[in-house]
Structure formats: structure tokens, C-alpha cells
Amino acid sequence: QVQLMESGGGSVQTGGSLRLSCAASGSIFSFNYMGWYRQPPGNQRELVARIFRWGSSLYADSVKGRFTISKDLAKNTIYLQMNSLKPEDTAVYFCTAETPSNEAYWGQGTQVTVSS
Q1: Cβ contact 14:33 at 8 Å
Q2: Mean pLDDT of 96-103
Q3: Which among 6, 42, 77, 78 has the fewest CB atoms less than 10 Å away?
């Protein structure tokens, strides 16, 4: 069983920055990937970014150039640095991880609100 705990959400104005963290309950070294999804109000959950075991990453087109995903294996933590935030980035952000046995785990989510 893997537990994921997000932190770092909050309220900012347009153009501001936030850094989200997701701490896992154990080693993340062997995970197929970890990532961030978000669910805007009244909408479905959508992919934001993923970082894979060997360090490669992918991003949703809407956040490319503004968001950066990274990981710290020593801290069993991934991060999402979010810059140039827009009101449309407002959502609950969820951390996810996929284990080598292809089991998926999710955190409880953290709210990000961007005001204009």
C-alpha cells in the first residue's frame, strides 16, 4: 500500500507561482511513474504532468513552459513548480503513482485557486 500526501496548494493572483509537493510513504525509486492530475470545478480530472522512472517527463499542452515536474529520490517526493499561473489553472491537484506491478495510487488532493 502506497500513501501519497500532497501539500503546497493555496490561493494566488494571476501570474503568481506555487510549488506543490507529493510525499510517498516509501521509496519511489522503482515506480513506473509519478505525476500530477487536476480537476477543475465541474470538469473531469485531467493530466498535468508525469515523470517516469528514468527521469523523462511529459506535460499537458496547457502547462508546457510554465510548469515543471521533478523528483527527489532521497525524500521520496515529487514536486510541481507552477509559474505564470492563470485562472484556468484553478483546480484540485492530485498526485498519482504507478508501481512496478501497475497498481495506481492517488493522494487526497490539494486546492489551487488563481484569481484574476
Answers
A1: no
A2: 96
A3: 42
